[in-house]
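Lab intake sheet, docking and co-folding queue.

SAMPLE TYPE: protein with bound small molecule
LIGAND NAME: copper (II) ion
LIGAND FORMAT: SMILES
REQUESTED OUTPUT: full 3D complex as structure tokens
PRIORITY: normal
SUBMITTED BY: R.K., bench team

The fields below were copied directly from the construct record.
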Amino acid sequence: MVSRRNFIGGAGAVTAAVSAAAVSKVAMAALPEPVIQTRPDTMPPLVPNTGRPYNPVVTLNGWTLPWRMNNGIKEFHLIAEPVVREMSPGFKAHLWGYNGQSPGPTIEVVEGDRTSIHWHGQRLPNGMDGVTGLNQPGIPPGKTYVYEFVARRPGTFMYHPHADEMVQMAMGMMGFWITHPKLEKGAKHPLIDEVDRDFCFLLNAYDIEPGSATPKIMTMLDFNLWSWNSRIFPGIAPLVVRHMDKVRIRVGNLTMTNHPIHLHGHEFLITGTDGGPTPKSTRQYEVTADVAVGQMRQLDFLADEEGDWAFHCHKSHHTMNAMGHDVPTMIGVDHRGVARQITNLIPDYMVMGERGMKDMTEMEMPLPDNTAAMMAGQGPFGAVGMGGMFSVVKVRKEQKRGDYSDPGWYQHPPGTVAYEFTGALPDPARFKADASPGAGAMPAMAKPAKDIEVRVRKPAGGHAGH
Ligand SMILES: [Cu+2]
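RESULT FIELD (auto-filled):
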């Protein structure tokens, strides 16, 4: 547990590191100006104005790093630094990232491009595609390393440090690298179709004690914040598309567990993995793609169904925000009066509602400062009982080409929304087999003398393994 004293000590250390790591002006003079982003909004695609043309991606709640062309080489400048990332409105986490955000900016190049990455390590030894100690010395605070190479094959890659990896990844140091295919004018790639919208996001996870802001870095599996690009519902931007757009979504997993990513209303093809585009003969329609640890999956679909479609991880605990995992199951117990009285004495006291976790919102319990509500989204029909890895794909006929702005909630045509049945309900026909010797496929050989009521109990002793 992060005690208050530890937490304050940690925050002090961060501040000290920032001021100590002043960048040498002389060393930076020949480098491209580093671009810093302070907002967590989804930025419009960065259309290339130099170099080979390509169809740019849109990074969910993120941005693409501008480059400088220098003698035919694309130069990027990354700065590793402590950042404040707003994970959802009003909830700010103290992470480590690049150029002002976690994840860092997306880097986009074209196959065959000669690129140069200026890596400025401000805090701790870092590496990029170079394993510290194995391929190169660590980058000390205040020093810059230059990486030069040719982007050889098209695809979606991830960058992250390979030094003190457990700590630096738990703190949010990661980002996307996209190499677009090199095509002659008018030519088509045999395996990479052109799309109208191309989104990307990373799956990441943090363990931030309610009321604090710094992730616990020793957590192995039991994280309490499951995020996309270090954002949690309702803070994750919707994926806005035009009706009949060809849509691509690239999902990379840098957490320590798998995430079955599930799309409502449409079927997609998995058209790419970390190894490159998938052969056409292996593609089949899916509505869920399991993205294993360290993997990337590229999903293509035709947005041919208007509406607001849920898009989320299918692990139910990954669509919730910071929850205490040690709360008892209180289904069937009306304890709201008692809970309110205890809350007067212990403000942070929290229990599960008698009809499930969603009751907690109506119990109006005070939350510690800087805590994301467990489930906090407000939809057009009421509260959305979700958190974590959850967003919405908004498909609209009126959306203009290239417009990513939020069109608001979908206006359902009359008669197309589920409604309450108000007629007379027939008596439920109870299971006819109740009176028979056995309710199974065959009569039981020996019935117990007395009916036994089973007490259901969830296994105690932690939530590891999910
Ligand atoms: Cu998940």
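REVIEWER NOTE: Residues 1-29, 120-129 have pLDDT under 50 and may be disordered.
SIGN-OFF: pending second check by T.M.
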